[in-house]
Amino acid sequence: MSISVPKIVLVGGGQIGGVLAQLCAVRRLGDIVLYDVVPDAPQGKSLDIAEASGIDGFDSKVAGTNDVKDMKDADVVIVTAGVPRKPGMSRDDLLTINAKIIQSVGENIKTYAPNSIVIVISNPLDAMVTLMQKTTGFPASRVLGQAGVLDSSRFATFLAWELGVSVKDIKAPVLGGHGDTMVPLVRYANINGVPVMEQLERKYKSADKAKSVMEEIVKRTRDAGGEIVALLKTGSAFYSPASAAVQMLEAILRDEKRTLPVCAKLNGEFGITGYYVGILATLGKSGVEKVMEMQLNAEEQAMFDSSVSAVKKLVEDMGRLGF
Question: Is residue 273 predicted with pLDDT exceeding 80?
Fold first, then answer.
């Protein structure tokens, strides 16, 4: 009997790619190939990670390469390739330059890893996932984007800090596009089932104050990526996006049937057809196995529709640019 070890290809050997490689190795998720166009850079990072195997206790193979042919037969490809945001730059500003990169990467994945599941992290996220699926021609279930897991973790973290509780006990889903119009679902945010708003009202003994505090947390969640960019000055977030992608990867490789907020293509759910948008979906060995619909109230639906409109505009802009 042969036991197959998953092959994980990471496209982009920058900050996120390096952290991804280390996390995949430490969690023993499979053998890892780190690809980048910069000569020797992925080889150096991979060697550094591999030399910690005796300390971290993993036997996963970690290899760096500049040859796209080393993508061959990947089970999962995680794409981080692209230019990161700089201070004052929005995710949308990255559209043209990153679209060229994603189109090229997608063509290589189609050629060398035709049976893989693809997770895209590159920004602007919703547009880049759309382009990846168009370029590869893969079923939509095998092409998805990482955004909601990260945004929801940020939302939960800020709520945990405010209420003085463990973030492990908070569920705080964020839907919609990965940008300024994302939709943190306040009504669904809870601490082991107890509504967060109820606890904020108890803390401040005022519904108005609780609402004001929540509005600030929602705003910080939407601006979280930009906040990190402003502090780093020479790059964007990389630890948290890598951790978010690995949670998705783990759910897929281990067929966990986890229901996570991800960027997936809708086929009539929420009244949307043919667009990639952040929603809750069940992940397993086939990729996106089921989209979970939920009842949104009028305010939530309006915010979701606005977010979808922003995604549609981004996709239209990309189309006008020839992608």
Answer: yes
Residues contacting residue 39 through CB under 8 Å, at least 6 positions apart: 66
Residue 60 contacts by C-beta under 8 Å, 6 or more apart in sequence? 5, 24, 25, 28, 29, 30, 31, 32, 53
Residue 18 CA, chain-centre distance (Å), reads: 16
CA angle, 64 then 67 then 69, to 5°: 110
Active-site amino acid positions: 178
- The model's pLDDT over 10-52, given as tens digits with 9 standing for 90+, comes to 999 999 999 999 999 999 999 999 999 999 999 999 999 999 9
For 174, phi then psi, to 5°, come to -125, 125
Contact at 8 Å (CB) between 276 and 311?
A: yes
Q: What is the mean pLDDT of residues 202-211?
A: 98
Amino acid occupying residue 151: D
Q: What is the spatial distance between Cα 194 and Cα 196, in angstroms, rounded to a whole number?
A: 6
83, 173, 195, 256, 318 from 187: Cα distances, Å: 35, 10, 7, 27, 34
Say if residues 152 and 173 touch (Cβ distance below 8 Å).
Answer: yes
The helices-and-strands tally (H runs, E runs) of the chain is 11, 14
Distance separating alpha carbons of residues 320 and 85, to the nearest angstrom:
22
Upstream peptide bond of 195 is cis (omega within 30 degrees of 0): no
Which tens digit of pLDDT belongs to each residue from 280-300? 999 999 999 999 999 999 999
Going from the C-alpha of 176 to that of each of 49, 103, 188, 279, 292, the distances in angstroms are 35, 23, 15, 7, 14
pLDDT tens, residue by residue, 98-148: 999 999 999 999 999 999 999 999 989 999 999 999 999 999 999 999 999
The label of the residue with tokens 């699926």 reads 133
Q: By the 8 A CB rule, do 44 and 64 touch?
A: yes
Spell out the SS3 assignment of 139-164: CHHHEEECCHHHHHHHHHHHHHHHHC
